[in-house]
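Collaboration report, partner site 2.

Our partner group contributed sequences for two proteins of shared interest, and the home lab folded both. The records are reproduced in the order in which they were received, starting with the first partner submission.
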Amino acid sequence: MAAQTVSRMAGAEASPQFFLLDKDGLITTERKVVDPAAAPFAKAPGEIEGLGLREGANLVEMVKRVKPHVLLGLSGVEGIFNEQVGSPLAECTAVDAFNHAGENIVFASGSPFKNIDLGNGKVGHVNQANNMYLFPGIGMGALLSGAHLISDGMLQAV
């Protein structure tokens, strides 16, 4: 029972911070047809008016107005996260990520990349991961728990 209460509280705390976009932009309760899986995350007009957002706002508008700490890209469409979306939050190669964001990032991609030589004997470690595995559990779990390191044991825990 306690775990369910904590999960509900964490979800309730995360919901105002979570913005969901699809190919038509920001999903709100004003949208006529919403995927049932997306419906719980649809924003009411009152939640976004103060940010200057509207139904269907695009990713660039969202980044400028919300200033997110994390973007999760699950579209499989190349080039959506570009420099206009905001450096360092960009869909890019490993080299681009380290160039835009510096050496203190976690980089994982669905495509394999080699580790990056950052100079001065430092290496930018690059990981390959599957979006279906990462989203939303690991990212949201790390954010809500405040984890600064995610160990293999944490990922393997049942």
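Second partner submission, folded after the first:
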Amino acid sequence: MKLDTQVIAQAALDLLDDVGLEGLTMRKVAAALDVQAPALYWHIKNKRELLDAMARTVFVAAVEGVEAPRQGEAWQEWAIGLATRLRRSMLRYRDGANVLAGTYVDDEAMWRTVELMLRTLEDAGFAPRESARVFPILLHYTVGFVIEEQARSGAEYDSNPYRPDRLEKVIDAARYPLTANLVDTLFTADYDAEFDHGLRVILAGIVTTRTGQPR
């Protein structure tokens, strides 16, 4: 197999299920590709560049085939679909959200996606500076949500501190009755519904705080 940045990044992502992000090293990636570590440095100088390449792979896979909203499709639903695709792409890999957090995705797919978002919001009547705030807000919410989601769901069932049945035993219902009564909702395992609800709250806030009027 001919080595290039994409091949190395995919090999590193495939290793995450076994070693996690903390255990990932250039040496382990080289071993997975059956080469010596110095061979990787022709393409990637250090782990920082490796993480950027991994993040690029995750993001590009998420937005592959994304187009502008269909006729009659609300911009909010389009934005939710885009965020959902990114979440699913990160969830394919252990620590997938941590891979994307704080990295630099220098790829045409990123700039094309941002351009689509800006044009979509322009068509919805947003002022340029208002539309420019929306993509970072959705990106940061999505990455942050998945970091927490993977932290919770990654724990072994018996030791998972977020299990509602465990929390019911440690929360003093006499002192904190509302919390005890709503523990199933506060610490739900229905991540799909929680993610979707959070997105809709954010988008509703964006609509409420905008200064321009829709055309």
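Feedback sent to the partner group on the second submission included the following. The domain at 5-209 is CATH 1.10.357.10 (Tetracycline Repressor; domain 2). DSSP finds twelve helices and no strands in the chain.
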